[in-house]
Amino acid sequence: MKKSKKIYYGSNVIQTGSDPYQEIFTMSNPTGRGTLVMHHVFPGVDIIFNEFNMKECLSEFRSDIRLLSFDYCLEGRIEWEIGGNRYCYLQPGSLETDTKRTHAEKFGLPLSYYRGFTVAIAVDAVEENDRELLLSFGVDVEKLYDKFYREDLPYITMADSYIKTLFQTVDSADHNNNHDYLKIKVMEFLLYMQNMDMTHSVQKDYFPKHQVDIIKKIEKLMTENYAVHYTVRQLSQMHGIAETSLKSCFKGVFGKPAGAYMKEYRINIASGLLKDTDKSIMDIAGELGYDNQSKFAAAFRSQKGISPREYRKIKK
Question: What is the pTM of this model?
Fold first, then answer.
């Protein structure tokens, strides 16, 4: 499917709706489904609402015109492999800038979920009268492109409080029949990015592919054997990776330390067992590898805010 002669989104991206101001696209594969709602705020300038419930996806996106995109993550995380056998991650509150010159072909979603925004500029498609309008508000698309142009790697950093508040405000607004509101917020964002001081902006870490592969094996081992409460030292020795690297890379890939990740994983299983079965709380605690019922109850309360017994009473 083509939006223009110079931008190709891919054969796996299907347009499912449109009106004068927006287009809706979906993509799906055996791991799930994704939706992109693209609002055209100016010719060549879009804001896209992205929501994916899938484990991974292939991108066939190609373009031979100058592009600049800003991706902001609200929830979940996205992983992609970049040059030199390295991985980078977009996590909640982080902002990625990219010119799509080295666009990844395969994206992973370690938590099987992602929700966020893209503000995209097809620089050469912004018409002259719209350039003049943007300039009247202080936004110069050429300056923006030159400021964030990168030949190779995307740039990822944690967004500051202004950007976080801006996107949270946009997220909570009603986007239907609200084209002028989106136009104003996109101009506000672009002006802020154009004037932002990058001096103290810190680039997020890239992780070597061989480390990420090990971390994914560790996560698979732990989730398939969730009754076993592995220590970091045990996992380090079993997989031949330094403890500090394991801690750093696991949090980079999955968003939280291994212990916290597995605690949440076990409590989610417990929630289903409490709701859908008549197993005793003691049996559920044992099934999840807790030494006794009180330790399980404390872990459950720390995640859900109520005891297992109270949870069962509410959900059954």
Answer: 0.83
